[in-house]
Amino acid sequence: MTSLDMQLLLSEQKYANQEKYWLQKVSGMNFTGYGGVFRSAQTDPYQYGQAEITITGELWEKVLHLGNHSSLSLYFVLLTSLKALIFRYSGNEDSIVAAPVFKQKRTSDTLNDLLILRDVITGDMSFRELLLQIRATALQAVEHQDYPYERILELVRQAEGQAPEEYAIPFVCRLKDLHDEFPVNIARHALTFSFERRGEDELKGTITYNAMRFDAEVIKRYASHFVNTLTYAVSNITAQLNEIPLASQEEWALLDEYNQTESSYVSEKMIHQLFEEQVEKTPNATALVFGEATLTYLQLNERANRLAHKLIASGVTRERIVGIMIPRSMEMIVGMLAILKAGGAYLPIDPEYPSERIDYFLHDSGVNLLLTRPELSKNLHKDVKVIDPFDEHVEQPKHNPACTGSSANLAYVIYTSGSTGQPKGVMIEHRSVVNFFHGMRKSIDFSAGMTILALTTYCFDISVLELLLPLSCGLRVVIADAAQSLKPDLLAERIRQERVDLLQMTPSRMQLLLHSESARTCLSDVVTIMLGGEPVSAALVKQLSALSNARLFNMYGPTETTIWSTVQPLSPDRPVTIGKPIANTQVHVIDTHMNRQPIGVAGELCIVGDGLARGYLHRADLTAERFIANPFRPGQIMYRTGDLVRLLDNGELEHLGRVDDQVKIRGYRIELGEIEHQLIANDSVQEAVVLAKESEEGNKFMCAYLVADQAITPQQIREYLLTKLPEYMIPSYFVKVDAMPLTPNGKINRKQLLTIDHERDLEPNYTEPENQVEQKLVSIWSEVLNIDPKKIGIHNSFFDLGGNSMLFVQMLAMVEIEYPGKILATDLFMNPTIKQIARVIVNQEVTIQANVTLKRNPLPSEFFSHGQHEGEALSYSASLQGRELARLKGVTKNRGVEQEDVLLAAYYYLFSEVMSKADITLYTMLGQTDSLQQFTLIFDEIESIEELVQWVHQRSERAPQQEFPIKAIHDVSQEEDRYSVALLMYKKSLLLANVNLLQHFDIFLEINEHHDRTDVTFEYNGSRMNQMAMQQLVKGYLMIIQLLVDELEKAGTSPEKG
């Protein structure tokens, strides 16, 4: 029959009525959720496998009795048992099984081989209720069985907007007495159950499957669970489905055996006591290395003690939370130890976090004492006492403070992403950390004298393994600096130079290290490599095994169960799992009704044991939701991880994903709901959905789908989120949609969103490369970002094209290979477009003149002093924030200029007011790292504020300029003039060279831009300039900024520039 004939036939009224039935029946059909056993990966070739089921004796008699000795009723009993089993395996309430058409009802009009039997199942249904429902479903389907199965699937595809999963219907159930011979197709159906009566004494069943895809033991166990389900159900027909035990007593006993992890440890000890005991053992051994500096165990202990005594004098005692916000340094560890010694609990805060997030941490935790540098605290919005850990506090005693606490006291609080839009503070006690130390040392060699690299930010709890654990057992801790954490080559050199024995990294960071050819050799002498924080691929294990003889470990654990809870040795000839629980830790795999899942069945991982956190700070509701009573052992607490796992035959756990909206990206745990919450808080965004996607290379990234105002751009959304969230939580892509696609039941269709090209909203202003350097950079970006080079314009930002910090490091390494020594990480951050990066590279290749004369500007004599602060750099600082900053950003956006343009225009205007000179020469460092530009502005040619700002914006085109690296500044000669000054305006982030600016400039304005504020600092030579006059100059500058903003607001939005 041709397709046209089929179409004409189906147009008849009889088939039209049946089509209407099936359209309603398959609406919103869910093909997913059949448990971890059934994977969606394609496998080729196919090889048939079979497992047998035999039902005889007393069980067979009960089955026959329940089915009234009728083949039809018998089939319904078997189908109900199968559907109950599928439900218990998957938790999926949308139950779909296919059955061959019933041969007694087949007619010449039947154009079909298979029926779809769809039921909605809940765990509180009884087996009897489900049996009656399935009977009604099947009889209805038989009444409409003439309509072709393939046409029904086509209706599903049309309704859902996409093809179903590989197995349209994973399961088929057939009874020979009722159904015609059915050609089993393992390419279409995961499992086919065929039953046949053997007289009155026996029922024989056969499960047919693809043996290339499913392990025989898995299917054998599935058959056993089917029999167990049937056995219990026919004797307990009113039992709820979630009460039916799947496993045998022997299987439950095996699960209990896997959880025998009890191990004795010093549970009464506190973290710092273990460190102090190690100090007694090895006082002169090196404890810390940072750069060229070192501290012995004794020196570190004495510094931590002095700071601890200072904290105690400031009121720190048991259970008090103390914030610590400092860059990577020895003082970071000194501060952590000091807080613990004082009895307090430390709260780590990254100084690079948006100020709004920092303020939230301080307010939510109740912290009123903060260890930080004074300059890092000046923009906090909470009144806190600041103690500088870089001050050695020599006035304090150096002996160990008296220990008044216990191991049940709080050790630290670490904030993790929260689904409600706000981070949540996890409270960890000393005892949990000490047990973690014990568990790690039982699994991995942490021998005294070994060297470990501390690479992870201390705001991530796995840093405890790199910092506090090794100090409790005599290791040498090498702290990687910021540059080493960014550049694989520098990191590799540090690993080689320090002969590092132990490395802990996320798989993403390890991939970056391996991306650099020169970095690969650094692993040859490493003894142990620990990978964790995100899934480890088999390919990475093979790659590492080929490069190093190190022992490889996969580490798993949420913050709420103290760092790592399971460990697995890795080798290239074994599947990658997350392993077995560490000492004094038990794991359970549960279904949605809190039943333990048998071996091989997917469920939520729950963790019990000494590693459990106290709970969430000030979040009793959330604590009660996630930390629940252990139903398998009274008196214990169990933590629900939200991770989907299954237990394997050997007692190891296989990680299958998440049961909620939480994802792991580059090792960071992220609640997608928190990002969505911040997005819809923006007035320009009406709806937002954030989803995790995966590139062809297996790299995970986030994509935000938005219903938003037309005017707002992806770059503006990204900049907005950076004021609310840390960089690692910013989606790589922002895609606008006219409306969110919906499923038939009115929910957002996330599957359909995933099919939308995430690259479609990349900035459309494509400009092709203009030279060889730009072409090479486009090629590098295309490889790193995995996007079409034709979508990479030379004016596109790396980050707006989907770049993130990990991809940035990879890109930096590739640029360094092509143009060694020509560009720094800071150059790339400050010049994020192809055009800008190419300009930096080209300028570095230009020969610089040896001598440059700085032009100076005359100032009235009252601005000069008589050397009362000889050789001293003095400064005045102010911040633009809140409404002031919002107005500044508003006028710069309307005028098509940058913040720095207005600030530089105000700088010019300031000196035009105090000088009796028409032309003013300034030096700037606003574009490239360590590169000075000279500009001279003739004020007689400027007629308005608007024209001044536009001149500054277009200064490179309008004015002759001279450019030279600040490295050559030692060759610069100055004109001798007592009452003249050299003026500079620069961005703090661009000055990396070790240069004393006071030797060359008398007054310089430092600009430091943050997401939510802009700091301006006037610095001047105290040996030449009058302090009072300079103070007035600063006040005048701030007034001029406001004057410029007022005038630009009055002028309105400028016409578009051609």
Automatic annotation (TrEMBL):
PROSITE patterns: AMP_BINDING (PS00455), CARRIER (PS50075), PHOSPHOPANTETHEINE (PS00012)
Gene Ontology CC entries for this record: cytoplasm
Residues in Carrier domain copies: 768-845
Family annotation (Pfam families): AMP-binding, AMP-binding_C, Condensation, PP-binding
GO biological process terms held by the UniProt record: amino acid activation for nonribosomal peptide biosynthetic process; antibiotic biosynthetic process; secondary metabolite biosynthetic process
Keywords carried by this UniProt record: Antibiotic biosynthesis, Ligase, Multifunctional enzyme, Phosphopantetheine, Phosphoprotein, Repeat
Gene3D superfamilies, sorted: 3.30.300.30, 3.40.50.980, ACP-like, Luciferase, Domain 3, Nonribosomal peptide synthetase, condensation domain
An example molecular function term from Gene Ontology annotations: phosphopantetheine binding
Domain of life: Bacteria
UniProt keyword Repeat, yes or no: yes
Cofactor section: pantetheine 4'-phosphate
PANTHER family given in the database record: FATTY ACID SYNTHASE, NONRIBOSOMAL PEPTIDE SYNTHETASE
Family: Belongs to the ATP-dependent AMP-binding enzyme family.
Record-given protein name: Amino acid adenylation domain-containing protein
Provenance organism: Brevibacillus antibioticus
Lineage, broadest ranks: Bacteria, Bacillati, Bacillota, Bacilli, Bacillales
